[in-house]
Amino acid sequence: MTIEQYAAPETLDELTRLLSGGNALIFAGGTDVMPQTRAGARQFQPYLINASRVAGLRGISREGARIRIGALTTVTDILESNLLSEHVPVLVEAADCFASGQVRNTATLGGNLCNASPAADLAIPLLLVDAELELSSNDNGAPSRRVVPISDFFVAPGKTVLKPTEILTRVIFDAPPSGFRARFIKFGTRPALDIAVVSVGVAGATANMVFAITRVAFGAAAPTPIRGKKTEELLEGRLLVDDTILAASSAAQKDVSPISDVRGSAWYRRELVRTLTERALHDVA
Amino acid sequence: MTVIEKQTLIGKAIPKLDGPKKVTGEARYVQDIELPRMLFAKILRSSRVHARIVRIDTSAARKLPGVHAVITAADTPGVPLGHGKDNPPLKSDKVRSLRDEVAAVAAESEDIAERALSLIEVDYEDLPAVFDPNAALLDDAPVIHESHPDNIPFTYEYSQGDVGQGERDSDVVIEDKFTLHFVTHCCMGVSGAVAQFDADDNLTVYSQTQVPFLYKKDIAPIIDVPPEKIRVIQPSIGGGFGSKLDIYPFEPICILLARATRRPVKLTFTREEEFLASPTRQPVELTLRSGVKKDGTLTFRDVATVHDNGAYTSWGATTPFVIMQTISSLYRVPHCSYRTTVVYTNNPYSGSFRGFGNLQATFAVESHMDKLAEAVAMDPLAFRLQNAQQPGETTPQGMVFRSCGLAECLTTAAERSGFVEKHARYSRYGRGQNGQGGPVKRGVGIASLLHVGGGAKIYRSDGCGTMLKIDDYGHVTVLTGASEIGQGSETVIAQFVAEELGLPISSISVVNDDSELTPWDVGVHASRTTFIAGNSAQRAARKAREKLLAAAATKLELSAEELDLREGNVTRADTGEALLELPRLIRSLHFAKKSEVVMTAEYYEPPSVPQDKEFKGDVSASYAFGTQVVELEVDTETGVIRIVKVTAAHDVGRVINSLGIQGQIEGGVAMGMGYAISEHLLVDEGVIQNPCFRDYKLVTAPEMPEIDMHFIETLDPEGPSGAKGVGEAPAICIAAAVVNAVYNATGTRFDSLPLTPERVLRRLKNHA
Amino acid sequence: MSLEKEIHFRVNGNLTSVEVPVTMNALAMIRDRLKLTGTKRGCEEGECGSCTILVDGVSVNACLMFAVDCDGRDLTTIEGIRTAEGLSPLQKLFVEEWAVQCGFCTPGMVMQGTYLLSQNREMSVEDIKRGIEGNLCRCTGYKKVIAAIAGALHATPRRGEEKEDS
Questions:
Q1: DSSP secondary-structure letter at C83?
Q2: Taking CB atoms and an 8 Å cutoff, what residues of chain B touch A189?
């Protein structure tokens, strides 16, 4: 593929205009795109766009009940955010076991989501908080936006609902209510510098004095990061007693459809899904 | 009168001499060499595991602008390389593994060379392939090398005593099959070379070799250049661990391209290529039968092994030499028999790797030591101590343990780790008794090792040369044959010389990287450098010392015995009083009527002997021992093993550089841990599945356990200042200690490695 | 042929401009164009940390960064750590503690260590271990690297001077 143009736009408007013809490969931190293009796993397009200079897309803020994270926010930014530590520590936990210090310093939230790895670490906690993704484009000269729930964003390994003319600009979710408790467990053989063999997230809230699980999510256990709908149904409104946790961790195995690869067999991934679900539920119970 | 105490450098934490250039990025590795007009080379490798080469068409590649040469087997002398001389640098008739070199290109950039490779057309005719060494032994198995229709390049047989008698003497006999896996060196600096011919056809190779002098002899026929016209320069080497002991095809290919183009050529691997095309540790299937009397006396070991040689023969095929030492002589064993069959397959081929077969052998032997102890209801420590050798013993294989700290290593490691008490306690807990009901079980395991510590006489000489000169500023240049691969030999050699000459370490320069200047040495292997090169350097320095003291005695009208060299001066031996500055003494020698320079040379040959035809003999001038106790946790629901603490007691003879030796132990423990629990080169039908650091898991910093180290100083009578070699020892027994600890924790005994989480969980859950 | 782009940036304090293919990574630019070969090519996949550099004061794997993205930034490579006064305190400790064996991972370790120290935070041994989790070393078992970083973290300038004298 011959690259015809390289651009490093400084405004979102400029960026979406460049994208309006499609045919573009976008990078921000480059931590996925660079090795993927080198390995031939991802093809260059006629336009190579460096999104890292676009103003206004890096940062974490709270407006009322809404927390907004710009797509160019790095994993280190998330890890060091007091706001997130206070409101969604589960997202910080996920950032903490993300790759390595050097990668965290450059890898962006937007990049991690758009790369659409089934194992994407940051997708799991965002599934737990029903995050919405703001996708921006340029519609015949006018800025255009749409919002998709994260549970609808991923399509297949490496594929999302993003159109070639769109870019992910923000991740938005409601600050969880008080009484929200969540847990993320990434299973790798190391504290970090690892791709999840399986990851599990659970989250719940207190309603009518009862803490119950409302969201369950899994990584590296299906073609995309997924919600554990069957597990959620089973847990809905129920007290987290031992029997329920046991039943839920078995239900979790029905939610997943893992593959066998060099990092683990489908059998092992199912075993981990059960064990980690059980542990995560015990942790928040 | 004040008496000035003599300072010693032996045992001190002398900073690493090559440290400053390495922490500033100034050290130049092969990857960093750049010569004027230099071209870049790339190798086309086989896309088949076993196939006949029907046609190679390089015409399109040759036409690509920027390409200067494309070579195939037809452009080489056709002489095979490697320890088995069965591996042509470029293959002509057929390919036998996926890494096989088929053609190579030299071009103006790596990109152009890569593109040229893609233009080379090769037609293959697939042949049936075999990947399991046992299958390769069957009558109708595909033949890998026509010269060996049975696929067996080597067999070894060894025996001592009478195993039948040993069996009759036994109260308990156990038998197990142990299966060891593929791992690879993962040197942080990938393989590479730069080759250049001058107008007189003299060849200079910038090589990473660990054996510069044998290299010249070995590579000469392959490239058709006489050895005397080859100069080997060793830039800083980004890790060795045995991987650079043999000649591999890429080096002659690089040299042949340099000759074809008459320009300097550089060839470096990518990381993926490093995984695919550098040597491995040899996978071994080892069947061990052991016996013991009720009183805890070992009676016999009977061993049969099958080695997966891969498609070609490098040093991996000779690891039985080391394996049989551990089988015959790690603890007292009166009767022993050992048979090995080395088998060709279409897998990657194995080379030498730190420990050289001993990790595999010790894994089996020390697993059995635990099982035998349990069978006769003895504590694992007491059982080992009862069978441990003492100093002065000669083993039935003929190894003479002039110094032997095995028993002290055992007791030290056990006492410092609280082994006996913990072992008893955890074994009760681990089986679900006395509480500790959670999924995470704790265990403790012990294992020891025996390894050569004073070289290994596998060549006619196991020696090393040193040349030493002192200039008129009192600066010493030491030219040593010993190669520096990061282990710190340079610093240790400088310490020995400085010690003899009473000079600060800063007065010593070590030259060790240019075969044009340095004297012969057999190479960095067999944990020999501190011992052999150290002895050589120490003796060369002693000669210089005698010369200087004799000259000073004449000048000062005293006897040489009354004098000493300290802190750059000639001093009185008794009081330390400075009498004459060393530079002045040397200048007076230069300017004397009968002038002379202070230069000495030494060739140290250790008093070891080659093994006889029955593999018996005192092959090393010294033997190293060690014991490691591993404490770990097993998560029985995920299979994860977390090593909490390693207590290591090593018989090192004597500590020469306290930091250097700690570094060897710490690095060896990390490497041994990787072998035990995380590293696994996954080879499926000859294809490596995980050629990257993402999926081939080296131990990372957060996984490092606490290491409690103890040095047992047995002062070896032949070692330089009493030291013995310890480069390989720390990696050898940890895998055995790990499986013993896992058994202690869970009651489940593993007979294969690595103990990666999924493999552990499958076994714990009896899931096939 | 890949599209090329001229970029301007600062490296080790000096303003530089080069024309690079837009597909090139910063590691290739640093080593092959700028000839700063102290930055090592260990895997080119972001897994080993041998190519760690500082970009605007933040540690990154140069192999994962597009060279064109260096435009307008401030790069520090291992060649920029030693000052006119000599080795940095961390470099000195790497030498004294034998945090170096073959040395191939060392420039990356020193860069990551320098970055960690620049954060001006108290760090436990566990924090330091996590801090270098992206730097692979095959020789040392990391212990002495950790000791060197911990030493630099806790060393006062006074102690540094004493060491120099000894």
A1: B
A2: 640, 678, 697, 756-757
**Residue A194, phi then psi, degrees to nearest 5:** -150, 150
Name the residue among B455, B615, B467, B477 with its Cα closest to residue B522: B455
Task: Name the class of domain B280-456+612-764.
Answer: alpha beta
Widest CA span of chain C, in angstroms?
57
3-state helix, strand, coil in chain A (%, to 5): 35, 30, 35
> For the segment B699-751, what is each residue's pLDDT rounded down to a tens digit?
999 999 999 999 999 999 999 999 999 999 999 999 999 999 999 999 999 99
- What phi, psi does A204 have (nearest 5°)? -155, 175
Alpha carbons B381 and B362: distance in angstroms, whole number: 16
Q: Is B28 on the interface with C (CB under 8 A)?
A: yes
- Give the minimum alpha-carbon distance from B699 to chain A in angstroms, rounded to a whole number: 8
Residues of chain B with Cβ-Cβ distance to C96 below 8 Å are 13, 15, 19
Q: How many whole angstroms from its chain centre is CA B330?
A: 19
Cβ pair B188:C145 closer than 8 A: no
Domain A181-284, second-level architecture: 2-Layer Sandwich (3.30)
pLDDT of C166 over the 80 cut: no
C89-165 belongs to CATH 1.10.150.120 = yes
CA atoms of A224 and A207, how far apart (whole Å): 30
CA nearest neighbour of A116 among A156, A89, A67: A156
B316: which residues sit within 8 A by CB, 6+ positions away?
B279, B280, B281, B282, B307, B309, B310, B349, B350, B351, B352
Give a three-class secondary structure readout of B51-76: EEEEEEECHHHHHCCCEEEEEEHHHC
Query: How many angstroms separate the CA of residue A52 from the nearest CA in chain B?
Result: 26
Q: Is the ipTM of this complex over 0.95?
A: yes
What are C110-124's pLDDT values in tens digits?
A: 999 999 999 989 999
Tokens of C45: 């996949």
- Which pLDDT score is estimated for A187? 94
Judging by beta carbons within 10 Å of its beta carbon (0-12, 13-18, 19+), is residue B117 exposed, middle or buried?
A: buried
Which sequence spans correspond to the domains of chain B? 37-127+191-268, 280-456+612-764, 463-604
B342 within 8 A of B362, measured Cβ to Cβ: no
Q: Which of B107-116, B262-271, B594-603 is least confident?
A: B594-603
CA distances B738 to B88, B179, B335, B670, Å, are: 40, 15, 28, 13
A145: its two tokens: 């936006």
Fold for the domain defined by A60-174: 3.30.465
Per the CB < 8 Å rule, is A195 touching B694? yes
Residue C160: pLDDT band (50, 70, 90) is very low
Q: Which helix (H) or strand (E) holds A21?
A: none
| The amino acid at C111 | M
Residue from the list B682, B694, B758 with its beta carbon closest to the beta carbon of A268: B758
- pLDDT the model gives residue B6: 81
Q: Which CATH superfamily is domain B37-127+191-268 in?
A: Aldehyde oxidase/xanthine dehydrogenase, a/b hammerhead (3.90.1170.50)
Instruction: Please state which CATH number belongs to domain C4-79.
Output: 3.10.20.30
Per DSSP (E only), the strands in A9-56 are 24-27, 47-50
d(CA A93, CA B607): 61
CA dist A204 and A282 (Å) reads 12
Same fold, B280-456+612-764 and B463-604: yes
Do C134 and A106 count as a contact with CB atoms less than 8 A apart? no
Cβ within 8 Å of residue C14, ≥6 positions away: none
Q: Which amino acid is at B689?
A: Q
Helix axes B380-387, B406-417, angle to 10 degrees: 170
Q: Which CATH architecture has domain B463-604?
A: 2-Layer Sandwich (3.30)
